[in-house]
Amino acid sequence: MTSTSLSSGTRTQTRSNIAKGWWDRLPLLPALILVLLVTQLPFVITLYYSLQRWNLVSTNAPRFVWFRNFINAAGDAVFLKAIANTAIITFSIVIASILIGGLLAAGLNREFRGRTIARTLAITPFFIMPVAAALFWKTGVYDPTFGILGWITDDIGIGRINWISQYPKLTIIILTTWQWSAFSLLILLAGMQSFPTEVAEAAQVDGAGRFYTFRRLMLPHLRPFIELTGLLVAMYVLENFAAIAILTNGGPAYATTNLSYYVYLEAFSAFDLGRASAFGMISLALAMALTIPMLRVVSGIFKEGGRA
Amino acid sequence: MSRRHKSLLDPLLTVLTWAGTLVMFAPIAWMILTSFKTEQDAVSYPPKFFFTPTLEHYRRIFENDFASFATVSVLVTLVSTAIVMVLAVPAAYALTVRPVPKWRDVLFFFISTKMMPIAAGIVPIYLVARAFDLLNTSTVLIILYTSMNLPLAIWMIRSFMVEIPRDVFDAVAVDGAGRLREMVQIIVPLIKPGLASTALLCAIFAWNEFFLAVNLTTTVSTLPVFLQKFLSFGQLYTAQVAAVATLINIPVVVAGWLAQKSLTRGLTFGAVK
After folding, report:
1. Residue A307 above 80 pLDDT?
2. Are the Cβ atoms of A24 and B100 closer than 8 angstroms?
3. How far is the C-alpha of A93 from the C-alpha of A184, rounded, in Å?
């Protein structure tokens, strides 16, 4: 009898523990459920669609074809080109943004008159709406006849270059780098400002030169910040869409079509939902393969709960 | 010795820094300048730096359906940001102040959702929106922008909650305040500036979003979609484009300038302060 009452006692206790557990989780649930439903469920459905032949233009009903869309993707020259374009564009933008943002940050991490104004001006490109930026760059900067860049190149004797048709990838890279180097400037400057001044002073007392201090002390200190910048820029630029849609429409001849843009073309121009879904799954896998290892590298920063 | 070395190099570095800064800002300055030109001046060759300014283009912005797109933009931005804040504060609370088991996994789940390209989900998102008759409505954008910004907001708010001294919570426990009271009356006032900058950042992302807006909406849509329509006009409206672009960037740029300090924290998911 004692044993029964004991066991029923534990049971009620477990039940109340479970209830308490859910009570603790309650504040988290709305956010978690919404994010799961809206951002994760679509990927599961995409996976299902990707196994079907389903073209809205064709009169045939959707049909289960297993992995045929994926096999076809491997033989689709444009798709392979889109993967290469995504890699080239993303990689160049990440490197260029870190370099330009880092140089600007180094310059701004010094005492001089008007420093706050300079910093404010330098980070502004990041806030500009990508569509607005792309639209104005197209008409006001890159345009061979009316753009300011055409005028500059004409003036220095290389003639009027039609940037968008001659160097389509480069125009995308320059425009996007312009916006994202302002972003890396913000983060790298925060990194530089968190460099302990005592260390810098001690190094100076020891007679260490500027370059030495930078290479041996500042760079190691900045390393996690640089990695974090790389991860975040890569994460956002992988999905680069506005610049491509406005400047080049993915052309000429798919020269600037990245994975996101190709999925968009397949789904909303070719209306081939099966293929678009398969491409979407592959780009999801590639994005995860690229960013998850990078997340692991920088996860130390996140685990510490932030650094000053 | 090092002082003299410094004094020689410093002015040069300052000049270089200013040069770099001005190159970064030049396209924006050019855009603002162009917006005050007549269309003839805007496409003149060589480009004009001095001209009689006109406000004509700003006056003409409101001639077509700019107002209706602007209304949708404001509505979608405000409502989605408000919902984000209402959901993110309790979630961050349950991951920081009274952490649930495996809170670390949950946090990493949230950040990992930001690494998945939204294009991979666009087909089902489109079809579900169509099934629920939500295409071309602000509702669909509000739902999507809310879930798009939630992970960022949770991470950012969490980073502010982590900084609240432990004693505050102990005092609350002694006081016997309930959870809701603890959250609303004690924590929220303590991190108010942090919440403001979180909201600002979410608003910027919602205001600028293009991919979802262009795929799911057409006439009832936000300003990026409105701007895109100018593409078909080519060079005819360079100055007009500049005026619209300048006007719709003013709120975001001003907000960004004001929030400079805590912006870095938000953009790095609270990792850098």
Report:
1. no
2. yes
3. 11
pLDDT tens readout for residues A195-212: 887 887 788 788 777 778
| Residue entry with tokens 């956010």 | A31
Residue A252: cis peptide before it, omega within 30 degrees of 0? yes
| Complex prediction ipTM | 0.86
- The token pair that represents A26 in the structure block: 């309650």
Q: How far is A149 from chain B (nearest CA, A)?
A: 10
- Taking CA–CA distances from A33, the nearest residue in chain B reads B147
Strands A63-64 and A52-53: antiparallel
Q: Report CB contact under 8 Å: B147, A186.
A: no
Q: Which contacts (CB < 8 Å, 24+ apart) does range B159-163 have?
A: B159/A305, B159/A306, B159/B194, B159/B265, B159/B269, B159/B270, B159/B271, B159/B273, B160/B191, B160/B194, B160/B195, B160/B198, B160/B270, B161/B92, B161/B93, B161/B96, B161/B97, B161/B187, B161/B191, B162/A305, B162/A306, B162/B96
For position A303, what pLDDT does the model report?
60
d(CA B240, CA B58): 8
3 state SS of A29: helix
Question: Phi first, then psi: what are they for A300, rounded to 5°?
Answer: -55, -45
CATH of region B64-267, choose from 3.20.20.80, 3.40.50.720, 1.10.3720.10, 1.10.10.10? 1.10.3720.10
As a whole number of angstroms, the distance between CA A282 and CA A278 comes to 6
Report yes or no: A264 and A241 within 8 Å, Cβ to Cβ.
Answer: yes
Q: How far apart are CA B161 and CA B144, in angstroms?
A: 26
| Sequence spans of domains, chain A | 2-49, 68-303
Nearest to A226 by CA among A127, A86, A92, A101: A101
* Tokens linked to A73: 């993707």
Shortest alpha-carbon distance between residue B134 and chain A (Å): 14
- Angle A168-A173-A178 from CA coordinates, rounded to 5°: 130
Round the average pLDDT of chain B to a whole number and report it.
Answer: 85
Is the predicted pLDDT of residue B61 greater than 70, yes or no? Answer: yes
CB–CB of B242/A143 below 8 Å?
A: no
CATH number of A68-303: 1.10.3720.10
B1, B16, B21, B205: which to substitute to probe chain A, counting the most A Cβ within 10 Å? B21
- The secondary element (H helix, E strand) that includes residue A24 is helix A2-25
The tens digit of pLDDT for each residue in B130-159 reads 889 899 999 999 999 999 999 989 988 888
Q: Is A62 left (phi over 0), alpha (psi -120 to 50) or beta?
A: beta
Beta-bridged to residue A307, according to DSSP, are B272
Residues of B within 8 A of A37 (CB-CB) are 147
Q: What stretch(es) of chain B map to CATH 1.10.3720.10?
A: 64-267
d(CA B224, CA B230) in angstroms, rounded, equals 10
In chain A, the percentage of residues whose pLDDT exceeds 70 is 92
